[in-house]
Design a protein that fits this description.
Largest sheet: 2 strands, antiparallel
Oligomer: single chain
Radius of gyration: 20 Å
Order of helices and strands: HEEH
Strand order of the largest sheet: 1-2
Shape: elongated
Strand content: 5-15%
Structural class: alpha+beta
Length: 55
């Protein structure tokens, strides 16, 4: 991503990456997780909340 942000030189012409490319990459990554792992990264297992924090 950083290399693309700095620009890519092709035949002496430098092409800059579009603004927001990092956010687009993150969105694609999160969508892939939602599609490929519907139960999430932890597979449905959650971290228990301590009793003193419960209402």
């Amino acid at each position: 991503m950083r290399r693309l942000k700095a620009g890519v030189t092709i035949g002496g012409v430098t092409i800059q990456a579009a603004a927001g490319l990092r956010e687009l990459g993150l969105a694609v990554f999160l969508l892939a997780i939602l599609i490929l792992r519907p139960k999430g990264i932890a597979g449905g297992r959650e971290v228990p909340v301590p009793r003193f924090l419960r209402r």
